[in-house]
């Protein structure tokens, strides 16, 4: 017989979950685990022009649905609302009106200067992008995407007309121009570019954007906070959800094989020395 050990709190065994009475083993979701690296996915984006264009179209598909849901829910809108939209397709949209809106948004988005050349630039970089790289890309185009959605809804009479002497995308153009310059540099000089330095650039850009988003959230009223995710941190929500297409939801139960006599183990896993350590006997498979 081989023995395995599992630390649990008294509340889990005898209280809220009644694990001991029910003879159950609790499986925890990744967000409940104590190590932030557990469940980490090192996803890589790479592909030809068609793949990059379809990826941007999928981003717009999810954003159009999230925008419509947020407009309907108002203050009840939750950032996690968009998670399920990554499994949708254009043909699965719930109404013809929403399908038409999505196609209009795609048409106008890809007709814009700089945006139309993005798929070919991304395909020509010759280097895969990790999470911080695609965050950089989506954060740069997100303002234009939101502006395009607002414009389509205004054109179809679903939103009030745009105020005179103002443009939805006046502040969104510069990030796209900067993105195009970076991608053009990658395409022309990819072999000589320090990938580690490039990764640090993407990470620094992500950190600055998140600090700015936090400032926007703190300085907003309740109504604006409800839509904060849509306008300021949606690229992060989308990328978090996108991992579900590769790895479905999972849970785990953790055991240890060594003797559970270390005081640090009892402090960390044994509910600060107030918990219980269960011993399981397991037969070895032949």
Structural notes for this entry:
The protein is mainly α and 286 residues long. The protein folds into two domains: 2-26 and 253-282, no CATH class; 49-245, no CATH class. Helix content is 52%, strand content 5%. The chain has eleven helices and two strands; from the N terminus they run βαααααααααααβ. Strands 1-2 form a two-stranded antiparallel ribbon. Helix 6 (131-155) crosses helix 8 (195-218). The protein is elongated, with a radius of gyration of 24 Å. The two termini are 13 Å apart. 20% of the residues are buried. The mean pLDDT is 83.
| Biggest β-sheet: strands ordered side by side in the sheet | 1-2
Mean pLDDT equals: 83
Number of domains: 2
What multimeric state do the chains show? single chain
Q: Please give the alpha-carbon distance between the first and last residues.
A: 13 Å
- Tally the beta strands: 2
The H-and-E topology, N to C, reads as EHHHHHHHHHHHE
Percentage of helical residues? 40-55%
User: What value does the Rg take, in angstroms?
Assistant: 24 Å
- Total number of helices: 11
Shape from CA axes?
A: elongated
* Range of strand content: under 5%
Instruction: Give the biggest sheet.
Output: 2 strands, antiparallel
The low-confidence parts are none
Structural class, judged by helices and strands?
mainly alpha
């Amino acid at each position: 017989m081989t023995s395995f050990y599992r630390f649990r709190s008294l509340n889990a065994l005898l209280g809220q979950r009644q694990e001991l009475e029910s003879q159950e083993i609790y499986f925890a979701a990744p967000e409940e685990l104590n190590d932030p690296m557990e469940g980490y996915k090192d996803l890589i984006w790479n592909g030809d022009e068609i793949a990059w264009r379809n990826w941007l179209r999928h981003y717009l598909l999810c954003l159009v649905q999230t925008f419509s849901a947020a407009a309907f829910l108002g203050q009840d809108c939750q950032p996690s609302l968009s998670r399920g939209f990554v499994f949708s397709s254009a043909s699965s949209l719930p109404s013809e009106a929403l399908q038409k809106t999505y196609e209009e948004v795609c048409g106008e988005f890809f007709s814009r200067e700089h945006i139309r050349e993005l798929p070919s630039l991304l395909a020509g970089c010759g280097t895969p992008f990790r999470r911080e790289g695609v965050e950089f890309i989506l954060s740069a185009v997100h303002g234009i995407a939101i502006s395009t959605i607002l414009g389509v809804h205004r054109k179809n009479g679903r939103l009030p007309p745009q105020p005179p002497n103002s443009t939805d995308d006046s502040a969104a153009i510069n990030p796209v121009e900067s993105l195009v310059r970076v991608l053009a540099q990658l395409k022309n000089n990819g072999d000589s570019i320090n990938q580690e330095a490039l990764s640090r650039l993407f990470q620094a850009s992500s950190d600055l954007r998140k600090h700015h988003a936090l400032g926007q959230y703190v300085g907003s009223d309740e109504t604006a906070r409800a839509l904060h995710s849509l306008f300021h941190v949606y690229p992060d929500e989308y990328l978090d959800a996108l991992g579900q297409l590769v790895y479905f939801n999972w849970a785990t139960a953790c055991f240890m094989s060594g003797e559970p006599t270390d005081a640090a183990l009892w402090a960390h896993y044994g509910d600060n020395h107030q918990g219980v350590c269960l011993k399981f006997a397991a037969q070895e498979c032949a």
